[in-house]
Specification:
The complex is a heterodimer of chains A (329) and B (426).
Chain A: E1 21-28, E2 38-45, E3 50-54, H1 61-68, E4 72-73, E5 76-81, E6 84-85, H2 90-96, E7 97-100, H3 112-122, H4 127-140, H5 156-165, E8 174-178, H6 186-201, E9 205-209, H7 213-219, E10 222-227, E11 230-236, H8 237-242, E12 247-252, H9 258-265, E13 272-276, E14 279-283, H10 287-300, E15 305-310, H11 315-323
Parallel strand pairs in A: 3-9, 3-10, 7-8, 8-9
Antiparallel strand pairs in A: 1-2, 1-5, 5-6, 10-11, 12-14, 12-15, 13-14
Helix pairs in contact in A: 3-4
Chain B: H1 2-20, H2 23-43, E1 56-62, H3 68-79, E2 82-87, H4 94-106, E3 112-116, H5 120-129, E4 141-144, H6 150-179, H7 185-192, H8 213-227, H9 230-243, H10 245-250, H11 256-288, H12 300-324, H13 328-345, H14 357-362, H15 367-379, H16 385-414, E5 417-418
Parallel strand pairs in B: 1-2, 1-3
Antiparallel strand pairs in B: 3-4
Helix pairs in contact in B: 1-11, 2-8, 2-11, 3-6, 5-6, 6-7, 8-11, 8-15, 9-12, 9-13, 11-12, 12-15, 12-16, 15-16
Classes of the chains: A alpha/beta (329), B mainly alpha (426).
């Protein structure tokens, strides 16, 4: 696999006056559920952004992205892509978006080239333009050598790359990816990230969801975190990290005794506590006061401290600080 | 327009490639009906010629050792329908012989067992001449193998009854000649020979073919196979949903009707190929294997019209089921069962005429019955296009209604979905 990615042919000139995605008080309510999956989300993603949408399982990410791809209809509120509502011009709306589904959405008995031909023609492409776009897609995904092999014979990484480039054939100004790197090796993931960076440099707006927070931190310049259907944090990566200084991470020399856990829980400034092996993660509105209280507590019990950090060190810390550690349905 | 052309081309291509690379579907849709028609046509060849039953084993237990048994044997032997064995046990063992005969028929050693009681010839003579003490002749015991097909049983009993009546007539003739020597026995014998006979005509149209099992089986099983496309067709849509391809297609600006046309065209071609193969097999292969050749009538236009009409009905139904079912299990079980029910009702498996009368009226609701009636009208009655228009119209209408509702359902599926209709996505 080559280390470089072909230069993207088309350039999209971002228009700063119109958002790539503009959601205003969007609600998505499933029948039989007391809480809406998306509960009044208002969000603007600027054109040209490389935007990461995060959230625990069931937070409403896929529902929000599905609305942006015109797969489901909001129960209320308005959602526009490049200023277009689905109702006003469904065809133009769909042509504005390239969608990379979470699953491998390919015909397994067709070859890579045949899949590209099918999805390209579905966009109305034909003749030399279609051939050129297929050649481009095969080059981007580094599939030229194996383009005429059936998809079902390819590895997961190859299928993921093809899954991505099938959404690029019509040169969409907005590309929406729902966990596009699930189950692939680091090389393929790195390759896909490079493709996305290159596309973004050419002006394509990227909306990206993943549970791999290090990926999002590495790739995206803007991020939003959803929880229980709401946007609970939104901004540049640096902003989101700096907003969550209440995180403390304590690494001990030994596993903490049960009695210590109870004592920590009882500290007045403790908002959340999680013990995993020798690592204790805490959240507090007054983190330095908490540190001042817990040091003597540990010293009195003779517990050795390996390290103590205050503030979100990475996106995962911020994510856990915002969404908590409770398991979700 | 150019965009639509590309989309339709894409929809047909992906369906066609997926279909021809699915060996199981190809085997099911082309090879299976071909084999079925071959086997069923050869196996059921005699069902259309009941009188051609050969060498059915008939045992006559002659307890009276009279000449009636020989007379019956000689008479039946000429027809070659029966292979007659006369059992003449000694008088002291006659009771046991009857029980034994009953058992042997029960286990299928003999197809039929006729018991002629002691003194039957004398009783008959007394009955005919009125000489001596008159006594009503008891019915003769006839044991019948329970496994004998109803048609064969009916034909055999009718033949046996006719033979016994002929024997009775011959006995009467003998008695008359004996009583009055002036009578010309030969003249009476000649006069009593049946001269009013039936000449059965089943070719009622000029040059119409003779009805045979292949005329029934070839269109019947070809129609069944055509409708069986419901399984691969719905399975492909289920797979598209499962593989996520439909999700991707839903995000593209492609209308539902394009995708449905894309599904319909390859199956239309496949069904046409299958029908041609089945008819070719009936015409050329069956005779090589000792069967009767399929005769296609004299109206190629009518055949084409019926083929297109039946194909349209099958594809319309397949599309409707494809848009209704949600799992492969539903597609295979519901698809197969619904088609088999339509086939059973439609007279594909059981000829309509042997059904009870209310059931015969019920066959009118099955599209397979319309197809079968149309093809048989062409093949057996020599019908032309005007003769099969009602059946063809029914099939087209059925296909159009099914396709219409399939279109509505699929359009709803492709549109941005109302959350009240779908499950939680995460």
């Amino acid at each position: 696999m080559p280390q470089s990615v072909p230069t993207v042919v088309s350039k999209h000139i971002p228009d700063p006056t119109i958002g790539a995605l503009e959601a205003v008080d969007v609600v998505a309510r499933y029948p039989g559920l007391s809480e809406p999956a998306v509960a009044g989300v208002t969000l603007t993603v600027a054109q040209g952004a490389l935007f990461g949408l995060l959230g625990p399982n069931g937070a409403g990410k896929t529902t929000l992205l599905s609305m942006a791809c015109a797969l489901i209809r909001p129960s209320s509120g308005s959602l526009r892509v490049l200023g277009l509502g689905w109702d006003s011009d469904p065809v133009l709306f769909k042509r504005s978006v390239g969608f990379v589904p979470q699953g491998i959405a390919l015909y397994p008995t067709l070859t890579a080239r045949e899949n590209l031909q099918v999805f390209g023609r579905m966009h109305g492409l034909g003749g030399t333009k279609l051939r050129a776009r297929i050649d481009y897609a095969l080059a981007v995904a580094d599939l030229r050598e194996i383009a005429d092999r059936r998809v079902q014979t390819h590895s997961g990484g190859v299928q993921r790359r093809l899954n991505l480039v099938c959404a690029l054939l019509h040169e969409p100004p907005v590309l929406i990816l729902d966990e596009p790197t699930v189950g692939i090796d680091p090389q393929s993931r790195n390759f896909i990230h490079n493709v996305l960076r290159e596309l973004n440099r050419s002006g394509t707006t990227i909306l990206y969801t993943s549970h791999q927070l290090d990926e999002v931190e590495d790739l995206c310049d803007t991020v939003a975190i959803m929880d229980r259907g709401r946007i609970v944090a939104h901004g540049s990566m640096a902003d989101v990290l700096s907003q969550h200084t209440g995180m403390l991470e304590l690494r001990l020399g030994d596993s903490p005794p049960e009695e210590l856990r109870a004592a920590l829980q009882a500290l007045p400034d403790m908002q959340a506590l999680q013990v995993e092996g020798r690592t204790i993660t805490m959240r507090s509105a007054r983190p330095f006061e908490l540190v001042a209280a817990l040091i003597p507590l540990l010293a009195a019990r003779g517990v050795a401290i390996l390290s103590l950090s205050v503030g979100a060190q990475n996106l995962e810390h911020a994510f856990l600080a915002i969404t908590g550690t409770r398991l979700r349905d | 327009m150019a965009i639509r052309r590309q989309q339709i081309l894409a929809a047909i291509t992906k369906e066609f490639l997926a279909l021809i690379r699915d060996k199981e579907a190809i085997i099911m849709l082309i090879v299976m009906p071909a084999v079925f028609v071959l086997i069923m046509s050869l196996a059921l060849q005699n069902a259309f010629h009941v009188t051609s039953v050969k060498h059915l084993r008939l045992a006559i237990l002659d307890r009276g050792h009279g000449h009636l048994a020989s007379q019956v044997r000689d008479s039946l032997g000429r027809a070659h329908m029966f292979k007659v064995v006369i059992l003449r046990p000694p008088a002291e063992k006659a009771g046991g012989a009857m029980t034994r005969l009953r058992q042997e028929v029960a286990v299928g050693h003999y197809g039929l067992g006729l018991v002629l009681p002691p003194g039957l010839t004398g009783q008959l003579k007394r009955h005919l001449t009125g000489v001596g003490k008159h006594k009503l002749i008891a019915p003769l015991d006839l044991f019948v193998d329970p496994a004998l097909p109803a048609q064969v049983r009916g034909a055999a009993i009718a033949s046996l009854t006719q033979t016994l009546q002929a024997a009775q007539t011959a006995e009467l003739l003998g008695s008359l000649v004996q009583a009055d020597p002036k009578l010309n026995g030969e003249a009476i014998t000649r006069a009593l020979r049946p001269v009013l006979r039936l000449k059965t005509n089943t070719r009622l149209a000029p040059d119409a073919p003779v009805p045979t099992s292949v005329q029934q089986n070839a269109p019947a099983w070809a129609l069944l196979a055509m409708f069986f496309l419901v399984i691969p067709l719905s399975v492909t849509l289920v797979k598209e949903r499962q593989q996520g391809c439909l999700l991707r297609l839903r995000s593209l600006p492609v209308p539902a009707w394009v995708l449905l046309v894309g599904k319909a065209v390859p199956y239309f071609i496949l069904n046409s190929v299958q029908l041609v193969m089945v008819f070719w097999e009936g015409v050329y292969v069956l005779p090589l294997l000792g069967g009767t050749a399929l005769q296609l009538g004299h109206s190629p236009g009518a055949i084409v019209l019926m083929a297109v009409a039946a194909n349209s009905a099958a594809i319309g139904y397949g599309l409707l089921i494809a848009t209704i079912v949600r799992t492969q299990e539903q597609a295979t079980s519901f698809g197969a069962i619904s088609v088999l029910i339509m086939a059973a009702i439609g007279g594909v498996m059981v000829p309509k005429l042997v059904m009870p009368l209310p059931m015969q009226h019920f066959t009118r609701v099955s599209p397979l019955a319309w197809g079968l009636e149309g093809f048989q009208a062409i093949f057996v009655r020599g019908a032309t296009i005007s003769g099969i228009l009602p059946e063809a119209a029914h099939l087209f209408l059925f296909g159009a209604i099914c396709a219409f509702f399939a279109g509505i359902r699929f359009r709803q599926e492709l549109r941005p979905q109302d959350l009240r209709r779908i499950g939680k996505m995460g």
